[in-house]
Amino acid sequence: MVINHKVLGIVTLLYLLLFFMHILYFSLKKEKIITLIWVVLYITLGLHTFGLALRWIESYKLNIGHAPLSNFYESLIFYAWCVSFVQIIMKKRLSFPIITMLASLIALFFMGYASISPSIEKHIQPLIPALQSNWLHIHVITCFISYAAFVISFICGLLYLIKWKGVIPPEETLEEINYRSIVVGFPMLSAGILTGAVWAHYAWGSYWSWDPKETWSLITWIVYALFLHARFVKGWRGKRIAMLSIIGFLSVIFTYLGVNFILSGLHSYAT
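^ that's the sequence the OP posted. Answer follows.
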């Protein structure tokens, strides 16, 4: 087995450990466990970064030489990395174990699915001509950081509707974290769409072709634009804002997964 696969396998186990550490915290209510959770999360992100770097180096050894951002397997493990990265950059606001537990669980799902699914090609492959561009890095990184920020927004929206006292943060706090995560994600998604348009012109000669993934990216952008408009202009709060964040994330998931599996288009290589 290639070394990067072994390292990423350990990372998957660490995400599983993080989930069980959260369960242990809710059982024992020991604050020291929270400190330990963040230490493990930092270690996990560090090792995750190392695994991605090893895969990048391995691609050069195979005379392929590209960042690990080009196929479905690599996008899954990079999405999990982004979820952890966003948790750490938002650490001051994410002092609530239920949020970090669910975020770690989502990262675990991406890593586990990437590792276990027999239909996913895990080997490093040459880039198809359309992907042989430096725009690949900018476009993919901005899009997936936005997707990761929207994970936090989705969790807050979901928790707002559940209202589990003693475990879930106050409604005002959830609304604030929800808003802040979208403030991070929306500009990154905007940058991802713009860089994607430039890349499309370079690769296919057109800035916009209404490809299914382009169309659903635009729909996702509109949903989060409506969220910000509703909050700032209309003064929306409460359940309506929570529902918008959930709808937005469902659109993200369809843009990322649904389009690849259900619809065909210029982005079909992602599967």
